[in-house]
Amino acid sequence: MNAFPTTDTVRALPAEHLERLMSVAREVSFPQGTRLFKEGGRADRFWIIRSGNVSLDLHVPGRRAVVLETLTHNQLLGWSWLFAHHVWHLGAEATTPVRAYEFDAATVRTMCQKDAALGAPVALWVGSVVAHRFQTMRNRLLDLFGPCGSGHSL
């Protein structure tokens, strides 16, 4: 791979670590409407989006899935691959045609376990994405289901 992602989502990962990750990436594409993963499925890969949009959604019993966030260019798609049980906590669907770098989770976990100098920054990178996603999800769910709307405090 010679074109590295460079925007905010991956900027938290030092260039030398991003370069190591990119060495095991493969380019993939998905047509609009493709379900990339669903809640409860095996989290065996993750992506950095090159182009297009992917919606993250949550199954709500008795309702249609709730879209929590839309991811786009250079954002990390998938974090469940890093944590024990490796099960997706949300669902994801391409809402436009998508091009992405795809990573095999087992390969990246092994790389991180063998080299703490890589593993620690990757864990912090993914952890920061998780923290952001949970805050976004909390606000979205409060907007949808909270008694007073927005999850933002005054």
Automatic annotation (TrEMBL):
<feature type="domain" description="Cyclic nucleotide-binding">
    <location>
        <begin position="9"/>
        <end position="111"/>
    </location>
</feature>
<dbReference type="InterPro" id="IPR018490">
    <property type="entry name" value="cNMP-bd_dom_sf"/>
</dbReference>
<dbReference type="InterPro" id="IPR000595">
    <property type="entry name" value="cNMP-bd_dom"/>
</dbReference>
<protein>
    <submittedName>
        <fullName>Cyclic nucleotide-binding domain-containing protein</fullName>
    </submittedName>
</protein>
<dbReference type="InterPro" id="IPR014710">
    <property type="entry name" value="RmlC-like_jellyroll"/>
</dbReference>
<dbReference type="Pfam" id="PF00027">
    <property type="entry name" value="cNMP_binding"/>
</dbReference>
